[in-house]
């Protein structure tokens, strides 16, 4: 999928919502545990109930790897289900990978070819040759951690390097990498004013924004400072939507939560 | 496994060699491709031929994920084979993971519980709460990227923060994290003089050292500056050993290469 197609989908659905499919067997409704693949059944119900309200789904690979081969099978079934039923949806493998060049190529193959995700998240610490192998894939997108939404973000990401925070240096440096037009960035919603600074460096890049909702960030604040000409934002919510209820009506309740956010987004897009 | 037990193994085997099991189906001997699980058969042959010369094996997860579920099965068979046949060997899942707290817990569960590795590599960019969930596991070890051996290491890791390179700040900061005694660090062999500086910060921590051999680092130089009282070094070699030959005698040739390095290590340990 191209970024132009993603922007078109946002305008069509009046939504730039991404739902994080972070399935924890301890948190899903009990009746699903009796099925053969509870993780997939959970995801399928969430997808069926919300696909018209979102432009993206984002399974975090940790929640699948924790269940070994069975978990990897659930991940494969989930991505295949989305790609078959809703090919217009932008899929994100939230994997935060990154390694030396030939090894990053193997990760890129895993997520872009074997699983056929539209994008994958990567970590920047190992620099250019750890990210460029991902960027080499046409119409695939590499979402690099810039400023994350957790407390530990302030351990290193905001440290000062010659008068500039590390996360800004990371973003600026990455603009010079080969095929950098395939880069997007993770920017947490916890401090909306950061978006002003970031937009000075990358006016149009898409930003994947965790931290709205459960983690306390404000949607309207993020949009005020973060929206670009092509919208340029994907707002992720995981727990607030998928665990809205642990009863049999979980999918319906998830839809209600997603609808609330989509309606807020519609107002923002129409203004 | 405790670090004391690891040091004992090093003295017993007169080796601190780690072999990286980074299996690429395009590089292994053709006759293995006819077997049901070529990756596992390759690893099994390498392990059978080298286990008395090494203290550690390190599969890089990228090379398994690239083959999807089948690859994950090969990884599981490989770690089970090592744990059953050679429980004295220190196993490293080279996964370079890291995410917000509850997500890192899932990764820790995947590698420490489900697959039962002794250790896992992690990336530091997301800070304290992305690493501490790994450190919470008793007698398990978390090997954090500090200074890597690739060219991109100089993009961010060596940037200057108030007169100190980022990688040093990363190491120093991590010493204050909960259960930091379970930390080890990845330090590339490409510039041996860095080890002097690093040993001032962490005199006794184990360092996992890639970059000797194929990537050009010198074993004797690394040892000169990097050895600690408890040895404190695991020297990794992957391609130089496992791809010594692509013929039917590949395991025998791998043993020859491993033996050369082990003999160099023996001389160093006895001096």
From TrEMBL, chains A, B:
Residues 16-254 form the Orotidine 5'-phosphate decarboxylase domain. The active site is at residue 96. Keywords: Decarboxylase, Lyase, Pyrimidine biosynthesis. Pfam families: OMPdecase (PF00215). It catalyses: orotidine 5'-phosphate + H(+) = UMP + CO2. One of its GO terms (molecular function) is orotidine-5'-phosphate decarboxylase activity. One of its GO terms (biological process) is 'de novo' pyrimidine nucleobase biosynthetic process. Gene3D superfamilies: Aldolase class I (3.20.20.70). Pathway: Pyrimidine metabolism; UMP biosynthesis via de novo pathway; UMP from orotate: step 2/2. InterPro entries: Aldolase_TIM, OMPdecase_type-2, OMPdeCOase_dom, RibuloseP-bd_barrel. Its EC number is 4.1.1.23. Signal peptide: none annotated. It is an enzyme of class 4 (lyase). Belongs to the OMP decarboxylase family. Type 2 subfamily. PANTHER family: OROTIDINE 5'-PHOSPHATE DECARBOXYLASE. This is Orotidine 5'-phosphate decarboxylase. It comes from Flavobacterium noncentrifugens. The lineage of its organism: Bacteria, Pseudomonadati, Bacteroidota, Flavobacteriia, Flavobacteriales. The gene is pyrF.
